[in-house]
Amino acid sequence: MRSGTCKARVVHVFLTGASGYIGSAVLDALVAHGHRVTALVRSDDKAERVRRSGGEAVVGDATDGRLVARLAREADGVVHTASAQDVDQGLIDAVLDALGGTDRPFVHTGGIFTFGAAADITEDSPVAPPALTAWRAPNEDRVRTSAVRTTVVAPGIVYGRGAGIPTMFLGDETAPVRTVGDGTQRWTTVHVDDLAELYVLALERADQDGYVVAATGEAPTVRDLAEAGAAGSPVVTESVDESRDRLGAAFADALLLDQVAAGSHARSHYGWQPSRPSLVEHLRSEAAGR
Known about the structure:
- This protein is of the alpha/beta class.
- Helix content is 37%, strand content 18%.
- The protein has a domain of 185 residues: Rossmann fold (3-Layer(aba) Sandwich), CATH 3.40.50.
- α4 links the parallel β4 and β5.
- The model has no long low-confidence stretch (mean pLDDT 95).
- This is NAD-dependent epimerase/dehydratase family protein.
């Protein structure tokens, strides 16, 4: 990673994905920290939700390079949480072009699957993505090798706010809760509101080629998660083939990865202090409330 920060106090932020799972939490965190946010959303209904959360909204499409470039030029920093295979290449090019020659930061979204199965994932770990997210690597390379002040945030398995992949383990006493595979693999995790705080810290720090794994250090097994959320339902293990048939091969293969990350760099470099309940605690609480 290249050294150097400007530690800018960003005032006006252009945010993508503000109506989505991670982006809505990032919007709330940015507003809470005193930033003005302009969010690009795809409908009037989503625009109204952004306004209720304290942001300003522009209705349009993240694949509209001219619109993205204009909004980026008008802002003091950019956060992209609407990361998708059909969006990222064009959006990245538009943002990097708009911010070129400035010290305004760009925070991009990656993901923990990039590192494949590994027991001690750090920012310097080799990459070995599954088919599901192999498309991310060239886009991240484009971001990191640019002259713009960029940071890639790579979240672990995200939970909280009643959404996220782990909700698959919430039982209702009408059907068994199924693991993915035999459930012995570990997932490295992060609460969506803790994650949102890290996005704000990364934006304000404005590193030159920053990269941060967003993980709290909690890495429960999938079996632990299924048991925590079962709510009286039986927990049933599956073979790999059964999980691939149920979830689709690409998605199942990603969820079958055994991954552990301590998130030490996020704490030491950015001053991140995650404080929300662990995923096991969260699932137990959610199950008890059903």
